[in-house]
Amino acid sequence: MERTLILIKPNAIQRGIMGDIITRFERKGLKFAGIKMMFMTDTIVNEHYAHLKERPFFPYLKASMQAGPIIACCVEGAEAVETVRLLVGATNSRKALPGTIRGDFSMSGEQNVVHASDSVENALIEIGRFFAPEELYDYESAVTRFEYGGEESQKFM
Ligand code: IDP
Ligand code: MG
């Protein structure tokens, strides 16, 4: 099964919507392999957003990610990386479609409530950035056979 990283950003925790966000992923049928609250250090923010460090908004982004703790989640499912990006919606929440998490919970391009890995390759790197191997759990899900068809189980599990 494919795994991806989700961060519930400090703005979502402050606004009291972390439960709503976690529920979106649970209801979809993504399985939580790991979840924890933590503070993003300078090193972690700089590494995580290295692709944006030359952008004028980087200092604001960095401050917003350190305004309070975040909740890191590692979820798994068939094609989890792409599926989670679709659930999250476009970066600028004002352009994100209604029904997506950003489309439903945010008005901002910066304070856009969640991060999600954008490729399978980056998901592996990002999961390793936020979780030690022993913080991720392999466990039996009682409902997998009701969530996926037989052919999907062959292909993705
Ligand atoms: P993503 O979160 O949808 O993958 P990225 O381009 O990787 O988008 O940007 C990372 C984060 O940087 C965004 O989630 C958002 O918080 C912030 N960001 C991206 N573009 C802008 C911008 O134009 N203005 C302000 N903040 C931005
Ligand atoms: Mg990104």
Structure description:
By secondary structure, the protein is α+β, with helices and mostly antiparallel strands. It has one domain (2-156): Alpha-Beta Plaits (2-Layer Sandwich). It is built from nine helices and four strands. A four-stranded antiparallel sheet has the order 2-3-1-4. The longest helix has 11 residues, at 18-28. The protein starts with a strand and ends with a helix. The model has no long low-confidence stretch (mean pLDDT 97). It binds inosine-5'-diphosphate and magnesium ion.
Secondary structure tally: strands:
4
Average of pLDDT: 97
- Number of structural units classed as domains: 1
Unreliable residue runs: none
Structural class: alpha+beta
Radius of gyration, in Å, reads 16 Å
Helix content: 40-55%
Top-tier CATH class: Alpha Beta
- Which compounds are bound in this model? inosine-5'-diphosphate, magnesium ion
Would you identify the CATH H-level superfamily? Nucleoside diphosphate kinase-like domain
List keywords for this structure.
single chain; alpha+beta; Alpha-Beta Plaits; 43% helix; globular; binds inosine-5'-diphosphate; binds magnesium ion
